[in-house]
Amino acid sequence: MPWTVDVNRKVQKQYPTLPKTVKESLFTLLFEMEVAGPVRGNWPNYGKLGRGRHHCHIKKGHPTYVAVWEEVPGREDHIEVIYAGTHEGAPY
Fold it and tell me: How do residues 50-60 score in pLDDT, each as one tens digit?
């Protein structure tokens, strides 16, 4: 059963400013989440941040780019990406 993946408005606004390789990685991550759900252990530095919240690196190096997403409470099979950007600004 496919998952619904929404992208937060803040992420949508920042998307055009991201480097091309980061955009491509984020798109791949979104596709994988639609197909297989929020647990993405195949991505670098993937980890759970708490109840229903996850993150991973979408580009290593300097600067490191990360994505943070959460399972939407009360809505089965629904994910919202709440951050995509540099590691320094990530909402951990």
Answer: 889 999 999 99
